[in-house]
Amino acid sequence: MKQRRVVITGIGTINPLGNSIEEYFTNLEKGVSGAGPITHFDPSNFKTKFACELKGYEPNNFFDRKEVRKYDLYSQYALIAAEQAVQDSGIEPEKLDLERVGVIWGSGIGGLETFYQEVKSYVEGGFIPRYSPFFIPKMIADLAAGHISMKYGFRGPNYCTVSACASSNHAMIDSLNYIRWGKADMILTGGSEAAINPPGVGGFNSMQALSTRNDDPQKASRPFDADRDGFVIGEGAGALLLEEYEHAVARGAKIYAEVAGGGMSADAYHLTAPDPEGKGAKKSMLDAVADAELKVEDIDYVNVHGTSTPVGDIAEIKGLFAAFGDHIYNLNISSTKSMTGHLLGAAGSIEALACVMALTKGIVPPTINNENLDPNIDPKLNLTLNVAQKRDVKCALSNTFGFGGHNSTVVLKKM
After folding, report:
1. Among residues 52, 147, 160, 165, which one is catalytic?
2. Alpha carbon distance 105, 9 (integer Å)
3. Would residue 52 show up in a list of annotated catalytic residues for this protein?
4. What is the pLDDT of residue 222?
5. Residue 342 catalytic?
6. Percent of the chain with pLDDT over 70
7. Among 342, 355, 395, 406, which one carries the catalytic annotation?
8. Residues 305, 355, 395, 406: which is the catalytic one?
9. Is the entire prediction scored with pTM above 0.90?
10. Per-residue pLDDT tens digits for 391-402
11. In terms of C-beta density within 10 A (0-12 exposed, 13-18 middle, 19 or more buried), how is residue 390 classed?
12. Terminus-to-terminus CA distance in the chain, angstroms?
């Protein structure tokens, strides 16, 4: 069966760089850092006292009181980004075959804030079980997809992918394939995360995964820099409406880019550390390029996982060399996590949007905060350091890798 083409016809986001696509793209191009002191809780006793939080977020500006009681923060962020993408796409749900429209969403952790608050109340209340009836429905990771489908009546494929920081790329790849195979005409996909809370920050601190550059938070996320000391946790959501190409053309939709292919692999190596030679990363990237029916020489830009951890950045660079060979010197490479922080399961969604910016605007977002390139990294690589670069990007590749050795790669093409 001939595979159907899949395109992006609606986008939306709420993340540390902006509460809209326009604001996000503007700050990406400017190289703005979204980091600052933690305000969600008192971080005085924590090793890390900063994060990439949303700016000026107030739930009551988006939801009524009853809805706020039902939605964990990660679901709130998902619904906001999804609404933007639906509005941007110009679709009218009442005119669609809603059984052909699905939602496949990604979240690495789900409702961690809800879990924390409910257990905290249980302990502080003398261990008397007075749990909210919304506890489980708010906490479980699939509910963001469920809420989106209920809001719009989308009755097609509906579930959540959970693969740590690879989650939203896996969601996009699944969405791509369901549409390719004729199982749906449209799927709203993406990811959301809301883990800037005591267990989230404390848990990652205990693993020594987070940066502790408390004296200068905005420069803490510094991929490829010799002085990097861990990632900066972020929060938010990104949404993309994927649609079968002919279906999009027939309704006169604007098309941002084609979702050309996806690749997945496992490191099968370690609980949290990547394969040091980047073997899994190499396979994920090469499989994605092959799935897109392209050659590695067709790729212009790679939005790397690039979390700013000492081990992870080097492993990914090795994977890039193994996958691209000498063509690596022709690539623009950048880590937008240097600006947004690491949105965990939502990372792939907002990084796919960064690729959309590169494809549609001809601007490659930078890797900021690089003051002293790691001597183990080839200085001839174009890591798009500190300043955005203009380039006619025709094909972009986006990596996300997760604890457990999960690797996922998406390839987007200019239309």
Report:
1. 165
2. 17
3. no
4. 98
5. yes
6. 100
7. 342
8. 305
9. yes
10. 999 999 999 999
11. exposed
12. 23
